[in-house]
Structure formats: C-alpha cells, structure tokens
Amino acid sequence: MNSLTPFASPIYVMTKPVGSVCNLACKYCYYLEKGRMYDTATRNFQMSEETLEQFIQQYIEAQTQPQVLFTWHGGEPLMRPQSFYKKVLELQRRYAGGRVIDNCLQTNGTLLTDEWCEFFRENNWLIGISIDGPQEFHDEYRRARGNQPSFVKVMRGIELLKKHGVEWNAMGVVNDFNADYPLDVYHFYKEIGCRYIQFTPIVERIVLHPDGRHLASIADGHTGELADFSVTPEQFGHFACTIFDEWVRHDVGEVFVQLFDATLARWMGQASGICSMAETCGHAAVIEHNGDVYSCDHFVFPEYLLGNIHRDSITAMMYSQRQLGFGAAKRDSLPSQCRECEWQFACNGGCPKDRFCVTADGEDCLNYLCDGYRHFFSHVAPYMDFMKEELMNERPPANVMIYLLKK
C-alpha cells in the first residue's frame, strides 16, 4: 500500500502559460473550453511575469528531491514568445538552490521554427509532439480554426526538431477512428523515427454547464452522453494488444511505448510512472495562467480548485487534506469488482476521470475502459511473466524476442 505521508513523493505542477489558448481547434480537446471559467474582461490568458516568478520560486521550494521537472503545457505553449521562456530559464537559475532543473514542453508542433529548435537544443528541453498517426487519422480531429488540416505543419515541425537534434517523443490520442488501425498508427511512428510513444485514450461525456462548458467532470455523476470521438473499451483493448504483439516480437529495447513499460514495471512491483496506474494519485496538479491551482490536468473544474499561488503556497495546497483526500479517493472508492480483479495490481482502477460507470452489482466508480484494460492485461501476461523473469535474473527483457522466434 502506498503511503500518503506528505513529502513521500515528488510533486508535479503542469504549467499553462497561455491557459487554454491554442492556434488549433481539435474536436476532442478537453482543455479548449476551460477559458469559459474565467471572466471575459481578463481573458488574455497570459501568465504575468509576477505569477511566473511566484510559481517558479514556490515550485522549486516545494520539492523534496534534488531534481525538479517543469512541464509547459496548453492550450499551445508556443503561443508565448521565446522571451517568455528565456525569462523562465533566468528565474529557474535564480531559485534553483543547487537543484538540477529539467524542462519539457508539449506542443502541437505547428509553430516550431529553426529559432525555437535552436533554443530547445541549447537548453536541453524535451519536446512532446501531439500527433495521432498518418495524415488521414491525424487530420480527422486535429484541425486549425476554419477546419484547416494540421498534419503537414506538424510534420514540418518534427523535421525541424530532428534537424536540430532536439530530443522529442510522440503523444497520440486514441479515438474512435484511429483505434481501428493500430498497426498503421504504430508503423507510422516508427517510420518518422519516433522511439518514445505515449498513447492516450480519449473518453469524454457531454454535459452542458451554465458557463457554456460542455464536457463532464466526475462530479456530474452518470449524466451526459458519450462524445462521438470517444474510443470504446473494445477498440482500446484491441488497439493496445495489436500494437503490443508487433512490439514484443520486433521492438523491445528499441521502441519504448509508455503503456508497455508501465505494465512491466507493475509486474516487477515497481511504480509505473503513469498516474492512472498508480494506487493513489494527487501529486500531479496544474496551474493556470493566473496562478489558480487545480487537483489535476483532467480535473480543471471549479469544484477542484485548490487555491491560487498569490494567496496560498504550492506546498500548502499540494499537501492539504483536500488534495490528499483527492489522491486517496482513487484507491478508497474502488468497487468490489476492482478489488477482486486479478489485474488490480497493474490497473488500480485506471484514471478517476473515467470512473463513471457502474458494476454488474450496481456499485459506482467502475472505469469506462475496464473491459479494454482487462483484455490487454490478460493478453500480455505471459510475455510480462517472461520479461519479469529475465529482469530478475539480470538478463535483458528483449530476450523475449528470441524466445518468440523459437516458438
């Protein structure tokens, strides 16, 4: 059982330097509508230098370990000029206090230039690129305002990152469309030279709120209809298993898929590195452009506002009873079906944002994707057992590929 003792784990606060502002208007975006939560009179969504300095100082001081990771997110964080991020580096140096500072930035890639890439390479930033597979699949939902496709611009950005030697990885949203073509998606990532891949299943419900927002939070209970772009449990299970079968035979140790690495970690009894697979959560929050801090990036709703750094410290908010309770609820609210499941050790109920279904016995808090995860874990179990044995005997898990060739 994980300890909920304060300071037991490092804390992360994802930063939104432009709030929900973005140059794209992806149909499935969960963050674009967050701007409706803020008064129209103050909707420039630009994090001020005062707020930036407060955040950097407090965030570094809140850490209990020598390395500090800053994650810049959006919206689209490249809608702030390079001068903003040069100020970031200046403030990080000022308040580092001997700690090692790392930066990563998640972008849609369309605004990348030679100048941006030179900046990232010189300062060793890791760049995450949002791309959903080949052009047909990517452009289905990831479009600019005016319904213009974005794939060509994203690929241009990736080529610039490669040209300048910037470290990058890919984040692909698994939706109702591309989920039916797992090998097309996976082979595409390999073809463009991507060795680190994160797949994120999209699941959203539609519930109209008074301020104009239309995406549901878990506080809305069982209400709302599933958004048409949401992946089904069956699709996601098939998608993950099909890619795993390709990966385990050809790419272990060469291509790193976050879900597969995290699953192997759980088989080894180690932390997965993915909050959705952890026993508890609550140590990864998000800060908006004005200093508001919310419990999680997927819980930016009024009911999950923890406070504001101009009134409350990050340390006080992140280790508050409210946030600790939010994190513990992931474990404590598991229905009996989950507690009795043979895969609980790996899954831990999945992300709380998707736990809006009921079990066969009528208990709340069953994850919508449960059937997909059960399919995946049962499918990969023999291979995970083999790789675990190899690791325990100080042999490379990639030996599984040799084993499969002999079968």
If you had to describe this structure to a student in words, what would you say it looks like?
With 407 residues, the chain is an alpha/beta fold. It is built from 14 helices and 14 strands. The protein has helices at residues 49-62, 82-95, 114-122, 135-141, 151-163, 182-191, 233-250, 258-267, 314-318, 321-332, 336-339, 344-347, 370-392, 399-406; strands at residues 12-15, 67-72, 100-107, 126-130, 143-144, 148-149, 168-174, 196-201, 205-206, 225-226, 256-257, 284-287, 292-294, 305-308. The strands form 4 sheets. A 6-stranded parallel beta sheet has the order 2-3-4-7-8-11. Strand 5 and strand 6 form a beta hairpin. Residues 1-7 have low confidence and may be disordered.
Please render the helix and strand layout as text.
Blueprint: E1 12-15, H1 49-62, E2 67-72, H2 82-95, E3 100-107, H3 114-122, E4 126-130, H4 135-141, E5 143-144, E6 148-149, H5 151-163, E7 168-174, H6 182-191, E8 196-201, E9 205-206, E10 225-226, H7 233-250, E11 256-257, H8 258-267, E12 284-287, E13 292-294, E14 305-308, H9 314-318, H10 321-332, H11 336-339, H12 344-347, H13 370-392, H14 399-406
Parallel strand pairs: 1-12, 2-3, 3-4, 4-7, 7-8, 8-11
Antiparallel strand pairs: 5-6, 9-10, 12-13, 13-14
Primary descriptors:
single chain, 407 residues, alpha/beta
Which blocks of ≥5 consecutive residues have pLDDT under 50?
Answer: 1-7
What share of residues is helical?
25-40%
Number of helices: 14
> On the 0-100 scale, what is the average pLDDT?
95
Q: What's the count of strands? A: 14
With strands numbered from the N-terminus, the spatial order across the biggest sheet is 2-3-4-7-8-11
Distance between the termini: 38 Å
- Shape descriptor reads globular
Radius of gyration (Å): 21 Å
Order of helices and strands: EHEHEHEHEEHEHEEEHEHEEEHHHHHH
Largest sheet: 6 strands, parallel
**Class per helix and strand makeup:** alpha/beta
Strand content: 5-15%
